[in-house]
Amino acid sequence: MGLTQDIGAATIDGLAYLGGLTRLAGAATRAMFGELFRERKLPFGRAIHQGMAVGVKALPILSLISFFVGMILALQAAYELRRLGALQFVASAVAISVTRELGPLMTAILVIGRSGSAFAAELGTMKVNEEIDALETMAVDPVRFLVVPKLLAMLIMMPCLTIWADTMGVMGGALFGVTNAGFTLGTYVHATMDALALRDIVTGLIKSLMFALVITMVGCQEGFRTGLGSEEVGKSTTSAVVMSIFLVILVDLLFTMLFYFGVTG
């Protein structure tokens, strides 16, 4: 009975957590679209500030990681393709792998570490310092003031970062292809364009939008749920990173299955 009770309690807690994420996402969506037609406009200035932090400042490390991952993919693909006498398909393997899967996923994990954790730490610190209570006392909606700018920034920046990660991943594969697989830069780019379909790129961009929603909601919810004391801020930040990675992988699996069965079904 103890094991059954533990499984049941964990299931209930998980469903309650997902319910909290859904409510927060609904409140943020209502604020984002409902306020567009009122006198009090959304805090777009804060959204721009968040976008700079989420997107522009992430470009150097994202470029480096994506470039190296593209090279690794090319090396691993070439190892097997050379045995089959099909080394010319290295460009296709790298392009499809990066655009469909690794580009969005690498971007999401990087953004979780940089921004998702920062969201939880920021809101958690505000919760501990009773700043969120102060906003409510002044009749300022914390979701509208704090969550919506982050969500706007993420929804805009995540697809942009994903496209950049895809480009750098392909360039990393191109470096290997030009130096070790007999390609010229022109032939590698041509092979990449032949291998890719619009569906491959759109698949990655749709995933990136869903990842943006998940990362923002988890980071903000963990911040709002922070208990009293500075130690709780660290716990909330850790929990935000762990839960974001888990849910991003789960969403990635669900959408990959959806696209797979939608294409082959």
What is the straight-line distance between the termini? Answer: 42 Å
Q: Which secondary-structure class do the elements indicate?
A: mainly alpha
- Described by its quaternary structure, the protein is single chain
Instruction: Please report which band the strand proportion falls in: under 5%, 5-15%, 15-25%, 25-35%, 35-45% or over 45%.
Output: under 5%
**Strand count, sense and closure of the main sheet?**
none
Secondary structure: helix percent: over 70%
Q: Tell me the count of domains.
A: 1
Looking at this protein, list some descriptive labels:
elongated; 265 residues; 0% strand; mainly alpha
Give a brief rundown of this model.
The protein is built from nine helices and no strands. With 265 residues, the chain is an all-alpha fold.
